[in-house]
Amino acid sequence: MSVLLLADHDRGELAPATARLVAAAGGLGPVDLLVVADDPAPIAAAAATLAGVRKVLAVQGPTTAEALANTLERCAKGYQSVSASASSTGKDVIPRLAAKLDIMPVTDIVAIAGPNRFVRPIYAGNALETLTDPQPLHLLTFRASAFRPVAGGNAAPIESLDFSIASAAKLLAAHRTQTDTPDLATAQIVIGGGVSVGSAEGFQLIEKLGKTLGAAVGATRAAVDAGYAPNDWQIGQTGKIIAPDLYIAIGISGALQHLAGIQGARKIFAINTDPEAPLVKLADLALIGDLFEIVPQLIAELDRLSLASRTG
Amino acid sequence: MKILVAVKRVVDHNVRIRVRLDGSGVETTGVRMSMNPFCKHAVEAAVQLAESGQAREIVVVSIGPRPANDVILTALAMGAHRGILLETDAPLETLAIAKLLAKLVEEEHPDLVLLGKQAVDDDSNHVGQMLAALTDRPQATFASQIERVGAALEVTREVDYGRETLSLPLPAVVTADLRLNTPRNATLPMVMKARSKPLVVRSAADFGVDLAPRLQIENISPPPERVAGRSVASLAEFAAAIAAEVNEMEAL
Question: Residue A158, by phi and psi: left (phi above 0), alpha (psi -120 to 50) or beta?
Fold first, then answer.
């Protein structure tokens, strides 16, 4: 079974998560990567280095959902699967393409259980659905965080395709969140702050810890509603779903809708004054105490440890 | 402008769900149900467009069993003008839902279809995109702002890198994200008034759409249990454990 995989990119660079998606799609068969961009050449060159990629298709064109769905449709012939990341792009495009092709898609896949058997979370990760897709063409999105990345070192051939793709929707402007912290949804380490952080100034402390660890920073709904943190930091059933290797929850008691967003975390550490808080009970490791005393000391201690490991 | 809003009845998002022991699904009998949170944002957006004089009629539709009338009533109480229930007791896949909605779009000719970006039960995030494809309309998913500019909409979308603004010619399909607005709570007089608004119940089977599922759900299981954690007494120990995790990640 051969797979056509749509590559995500941003600011002219291949999304780092692509290596994880190639690993996921590679579980089904040979993978051809499709790059659609204003200037696809440098992105395609990076894509060609990923181990397991058979070839890279490069198309110059717009990246609205309509345009991408039309491009994928034109390239889909001969493939048994058309796949993408469960990113904001993949989520936008794959269902649109699926309806055009009269296929029921399978999205947010976290495990491949067989050639056409997949596992996907439902109810924000509070249940897992195992299903078989008997359709002749599989339209899939994979959660990058659930798969280990492939290595580099490949030199797959690049084919440039030339066709014009129309889109009624036009991109007017892109507004980037001014941040140098990693994206919440794909970060390896996430620090979360709850309403006990107490203020926007308090969240600067959480951000400082985030910087120390190269982590993404998130917040509970209560903290967002209180105005301590921006809305796009919200982790939970109605916010972002995270799946980091390590989640450090600070001053978070563990409301249901927050817990729903962190099910995918491999390890959960908690700092809280209340040893009975649901999140403390759920955590792999907990430190009981006042976050305002602990966090500054923790930052100092982590700085010391990383210095020690570098010099040692 | 005429707006069609599609809403879904789901297990209330504050309820802790229970997975049935036989793997057949999530227990929904005797569980509090309510309108999917993202659908509430879609209804609120439609009502705000009507209040600012940019929409003249809001039609709200739900697809599901008879009790789904409750979420239509909620939308009517929030300010929608009339409701349609496409009644079915069968659990439908998103593709079938989108096909039913496309039939309704053919009948109602809305300039704008608003939906929630995803339902918090199956977490699919499909229907708006599928409906846009089936009706050959442009789409803007995950909307945090909607503005009418002449015969077009300018929609700001929440995307992984931040936000982006699209211009869409009408008719179009837009799905709502959380930042779009703060949905109003319907007051008692609004709920009473909603009961006198038109609400039509039609059978989903009457639309000539193949409703049979394509996928075979084998099993619904709870997520793997987390091993019981422990508390550490000292900050040094906690920091060392974090450092150990980070080192392990770097090793991979």
Answer: beta
